[in-house]
Each structure stands twice: as C-alpha cells, then as structure tokens.
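Morning F.,

Quick status update on the modeling queue. The single chain you submitted on Monday has been processed. Sequence for confirmation:
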Amino acid sequence: MLTVVEAEVERGTVDAAGLARLLTRSARQVAERASCGAELLSAAPGLAAPSAPRTTDAQNVCGVPGFVLPKEALVTSRAEPGQEQVNDASPGTWACDLHLAGSAKAVVSFSATSDRNLVEAATKAWGGSATLPDDKGRAGVDEAVLHCADGDVHFATKENTDYHGALRAAGIRGLASVEVTKATFQNFLDATAAAHACPRVTIP
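Structure tokens below.
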C-alpha cells in the first residue's frame, strides 16, 4: 500500500519552504509508524519553482511536441485548452499542471520522473496496472513504470474532481470517463516516452 502525505492551500498564500518542512516531518512520522525506511527524509527537499503560466498550445500540450488531448477529453465552454505551468527544474523529474479554460475550473496534471524513491513507491503500490509484454514495464489507465534505457521511469496523470464534474455534465461517466483518462494518458506516453529513452507501449 502506498501512503501519500499532501497539503492543499485553498485560500491565501503559504511559505513554501515552511510547508515543505512540515510535509517532510509528517512523511517521516508516517514512515516511522509504518516501519518504512525514512533515512532519505532527514531534510526538507529542495524546491523548484514552476514556469510562469502560459497559454496552452493545443498541438503541443505542456510544451511536449505532438502531445494533443483527445477530443473527448475536452468539454466546450467547461474544459478547453487554457493555461499551463511546467516544472522541469528538479533533476530527473518533469511535471505540468494544465489549467483548462471554462466554468469547471478543471485541472489535469502530468508527470514523468526517474527519481528512485518515487519509482520504487509506485512499483510497490500497483493497483489496476498490468504487466506489459516484452518486459517493457507496467501500465494502468493513469500511470506506468517503464523499463527505459537509463533506468525505470514513472509516468502519471491526475485529474481534479472539477474535471470529472465537467465530464459528467457532458454525459461522460463511469467506464466512459475511465476511457477518457486512458486515452489522454496514452497520448501523453506516446509523446513523451521517446524523450526519456523509453519503449513505445500500448496501455492494456
């Protein structure tokens, strides 16, 4: 089982360094109670600021050449290409928050990391993922760990509840909603795998 420690600031501002120290201390306490190794959590992590918000290029989402959101992943007037912020300042880790334009206030996030701790945690927490053929790794509808030329890389996407609300308002719910996530994540993998020297895969 994977335990996640996170914080969400809904109003106002927060001291980023102080919040990082708080989260690190909380994660260390959770790890100790679970008898997990916490030696790598002895200090607050370094912080890397994301890029300034920029308009999303619908043909190169998150600045990734050829990354396009599936048509069914967008909802007219509620969740359409808007703005994005990319963070690639941390070695081995890339992330993008896609703030979709429209009334839903939807956010879809993407990430790719070769950080050993994150890859190991994801590997140990497999839920709905399946082993890929030819020893290429494992993949599910919203995350994958691929065996790449320079080591394993974890890819993931995450959608906020407002995004799912926009899909429901458009009549996309249940299995259809899962298929939208899967198609979006497949497009993300198709556009980013090669840049990380990873194999091209098809999500089962």
